[in-house]
Design goal:
The chain has 317 residues and is α/β, with parallel strands linked by helices. 31% of the residues lie in helices and 21% in strands.
Length: 317
């Protein structure tokens, strides 16, 4: 899909330059980049006979779509994209139990989901596209995923190569590129991104500017418990993650949205995190939630900060 044509109001010159820069970067002959490209080439001829995005598990293809020789090949390729952070997926009958039980977050959003039918949607930090596939069930005209990390970008290309959904597209862009898309999206999802930004208000301003008038933002963030409109600013790490900046309460994020210009703001979900939702699996065998929390006091991180909650808000432009 030609993004310049799809978004006539975009800053065409700067967007073209950004895409060219990302294309040149990802096509370097670097070992990691080559590995993902080579894995894609092995199975790029395979297509799913059917897809089902309506349930908790994103189902792409069926076991019968693969020959006895192809099944171990596809399994090996899928394992080559570990760690799988978002899911669950079933790909040609191969079950991928990802680190995050992402269906739980999606099911919290569904009661507040804006109408996506025929809409232009952005998913910021889309990872491997789990939520994009779930959005596809609601018949949007286009979902554009912003994903700057190469592994996640190629994992989506692998999955959608099988699924063949032309209205789903991911580019190696980050939230900082939203400024190139003024008044462009009917709905924007920004899930699990804000606390990784050194300036969350600047990020919210970019989200606001990229929405069409009357458009909706669904924003989800790591948070700390409490009713006061405050944010934690950790030292070197928060729950062992170095790239964490401001961790707000729900009330604080509400105020950030209001002062950015959003209206009809609604905090519709807040809950404590647990290892039932984020954990190690056979498809993500690195440290996960239980390793980030104080072993003797589960209300604290290993650094002694309040253990993470998650908050979900909806707001209109």
């Amino acid at each position: 899909m030609d993004l310049i044509a799809a978004f006539p109001q975009a800053d065409a010159d700067r967007l073209r330059s950004a895409l060219a820069e990302k294309f040149a970067w990802v096509n370097q002959e670097k070992k990691g980049f080559l590995r993902y490209r080579n894995l894609l080439r092995e199975v790029r001829h395979l297509r799913a006979s059917s897809c089902d995005f309506s349930g908790d598990v994103v189902r792409i293809g069926a076991e019968a779509d693969l020959s006895p020789d192809q099944r171990p090949q596809v399994y090996r390729v899928l394992r080559g994209f570990m760690p799988w952070r978002k899911g669950p997926f079933s790909v040609f009958g191969i079950d991928i139990d990802a680190e995050w039980r992402s269906e739980r977050k999606w099911n919290r959003i569904v009661p507040e989901l804006p109408d996506l039918t025929g809409k232009t949607v952005a998913d910021i930090g889309c990872n491997n596209g789990y939520y994009m596939f779930r959005m596809a069930h609601h018949r949007p005209a286009l979902v554009l995923g912003f994903e700057p990390y190469v592994q996640h970008y190629y994992a989506f290309r692998l999955l959608n190569g099988f699924a063949g959904q032309p209205h789903l597209q991911v580019e190696l862009l980050g939230i900082e590129h939203l400024a190139l898309f003024p008044d462009s999206f009917d709905v924007i999802f920004c899930l699990g991104i804000l606390y990784h930004r050194p300036s969350p208000l600047e990020a919210l301003r970019d989200l606001y500017a990229a929405l069409k008038p009357g458009g909706w933002l669904i924003v989800e963030s790591q948070a700390i418990p409490g009713q006061a409109p405050v944010a934690l600013f950790p030292g070197a790490t928060y729950a062992k993650v170095p790239g964490t900046w401001f961790v707000p309460t729900g009330a604080c994020l509400y105020n950030w949205l209001a002062r950015t210009g959003f209206r009809e703001i609604r905090l519709f979900c807040e809950h404590a995190m647990s290892s039932a939702e984020q954990r190690r699996t056979a498809w993500m065998d690195f440290e996960s939630y239980e390793d980030f929390i104080d072993k003797d006091n589960h209300e604290l991180t290993v650094e002694g900060y309040p253990a993470p909650w998650r908050v979900l808000l909806k707001a209109a432009k």
